[in-house]
Fold:
Amino acid sequence: MRGTKDEDRGSGDSPGWRLGLAGVLVAALVLLATGARWGLPGWQTWAVDAIHPEQVERARDRGFSDGWHERYPPLHFYLLSSVYWTADTISGGEAPTRQAELSRHILLGRWLSLAMTLGSLLLLTCLGHRLFDLGSGVLAAALAATQPPLVYYAKTTNLEAPYLFWLLLALFFLVRLLDDGRARDAVGLGVAAALAVGTKDQAYAFFLLAPLPMLWAAGRRDADEARPGSTVAGWWRALRTSRLAWVLAAGAGVLAAIYLVPGNARGFLAHVELITGDASQPYRQFAPSPAGYASLFTLVARQVGVCLGVGGLVASLAGVALAWRDRHGDPRIRRTAVAGLLLACLSYELFFVGVVGYSFLRFQLPVALVLTLFGGHFLRRLLQPESLGLPGRTARVAGATAVAVVLAIGLVRGAMVDLHLLKDGRYLAEEWVAERAAELEQPVDGALCIGRRRHCPRLATVRWDRVLRDPGTFLENHEPSWIAINVDDLRSEAERRFYSDLTAGTYNYRHVFTATGEVPLPLLPRKPIRSSFRFVNPRIDVFERVDEDASDQDPDSHSDGAA
Structure:
């Protein structure tokens, strides 16, 4: 499947690519680990929808049973609990404060995500090697490592990084199964698919169309062996030799074990009810109509493009066409594997995204990673343009330059994520409040952030609903010296009206500071692509209480502007 020795010698499988893989992994480690302490130490994590240690503790205290459930499946809760317990045992004692303990556990969860992301890059390399050659796999990993969503989720405790690892492992077994039809690969596919679903439910949709290429591959092997028999007998034999029963049996057994179905059936049913109801229905963005689906999948295409970038998208689409017509090895095997991977992506879009009727940027990250396999293959062929019918030194220089530009732009896009994390405006707001409190010899706890805790600076925080019942009375009763507002997280009309009144001085406060971390380039388009990046490096406005004896001061006397 990877071509003949003569075809591969000195090209995609040369020893230089092994050194290149080491370089990609080292660079990826630096890129993905930078900013891992974002928002720490703290009681909360600034990452939206990240699993918090207290959620894991509540699950562990109930033995992950007795009706326990969350909106997410239990597998990663088991892993996090094990990591916490191991680290706490090795450290030999409790953390000095509760905040220190939570911060340590959040960081441990992020390191686990980082390790699994590096594992995903290795799996992409193995998939690329299996499909094409080592060079294609290495370049696929390089394209993937710089995708902004992956750079972000590699250092959070969201489920994207772990579920992508299990998903890519399942796809690796699928490609092997389509090639050889061995029972061990069928079992591996079933187990890995169950681990992916047991980490994040939506992974199920990748495998609903998998029987089609499995049956096709089994029928092809039967035809190669020239087995006689009727059409019905041939299909029955293909069904048996496709190993589909092995996949289903292994997957069902592992899923039952993950969900602890015998001992926590009530929790499993409650989880299913939650994800099919309140956890998904309120987010529907497009109606289930032809116009709605057209709008939805237009958004999906834009999100895939944002993940890959222009260069990565062009390379990936060109790589799909190139992989389909390549003549290295057995073209039928290659096309069956290519079709299997693309069908998995199509199945996901149809049976998950199409069903729920909405898509966030992170939903398209696995599809973008699969496409990098083809993008890596195309970039590798650009380094040998004679294989594309473009001989000559000029073509080689042009090809190498194009590859370098695509990878360099990707690296810049990924680095922007790290810069936005390191320059987050909430740090600046905290520093300003601390300096101002020291200047006035007042306690820092006189500052109050109004908003959602995960989007606020690490100050005392109060929820919007408590304030909006009667803003004037609340402020009179509490009299915070400073109020911080995350301007990028104003969602309701009531929140925006309160912010407007605060800015106008209605509540005897004046705007004194705007904190926005200055970064050379914007992170990504925020709202149009429905991304969690709008919660990274937000604008924080700080207001100071105006005392009666200070009412004649210049209202902008302490306004430092954007930091």
Notes: The radius of gyration is 27 Å.
